[in-house]
Design brief:
Elements (H helix, E strand, L loop, with lengths): L2 H16 L1 H7 L5 H8 L18 H14 L3 H12 L19 H7 L6 H19 L2 H10 L1 H7 L6 H13 L11
Length: 187
């Protein structure tokens, strides 16, 4: 296990032991005050409904397992990000120019040394980028917000930016990883 993986593992462990119980309570219907205590005013929403609510297609499952092993992140976390980003569609392209399963921007893919059009490399690049963001922000919600809106936006706002799309993105991924969902964030 490398230093980045150890950091990510420690941060996720801390997050799971301290935040997940509050998250489960805060996301209960009609519990806005608990939500505000956990998220500092972020408005809870219903999940947006990804294009593929199940796991990844068998052709990609091994790529998620390899990327998880290389970064110390759980396959469930990586799959939740990919589900939210592209619905597991390797040919997906956003209006902003992000491409592939993990919706990497071309510049980010270049920095990571991956071909974003190659699904396995896209997943690996996205996993490494998320692991770097976890080390940088020391918080899964903030790392997810940075993955979605960019690290500069998280730094500028000192937390999850007040963009509805980013707030929904973070909420939906965390909700899919809650103990009630059966998913885990650590490998």
């Amino acid at each position: 296990m490398n230093v980045t993986s150890a950091w990510a593992d420690a941060l996720l462990s801390l997050w799971l032991t301290q935040l997940v119980p509050e998250l489960a309570s805060a996301t209960a219907p009609g519990n806005a005050s608990a939500w505000n205590q956990v998220w500092g005013g972020m408005t809870p929403t219903h999940p947006q409904g990804a294009t593929n609510p199940m796991g990844p297609p068998p052709t990609l499952a091994q790529d998620f397992a390899r990327a998880a092993s290389a970064t110390g992140l759980s396959p469930q976390l990586l799959e939740a990000v990919a589900r939210q980003e592209s619905g597991f569609n390797p040919a997906s392209q956003s209006p902003a120019g992000a491409v592939g399963v993990m919706q990497l921007m071309p510049g980010t893919a270049r920095e990571l040394g991956v071909n974003p059009a190659n699904a396995a490399e896209n997943i690996s690049g996205g996993a490494h980028y998320l692991a770097e963001l976890l080390v940088q922000f020391k918080s899964l919600p903030l790392a997810l917000a940075a993955y979605n809106a960019g690290p500069g936006a998280v730094e500028r706002y000192g937390g999850v930016p007040p963009y509805a799309q980013t707030q929904h993105y973070v909420h939906d991924i965390l909700a899919s990883l809650s103990p009630r969902s059966g998913a885990a964030t650590r490998a």
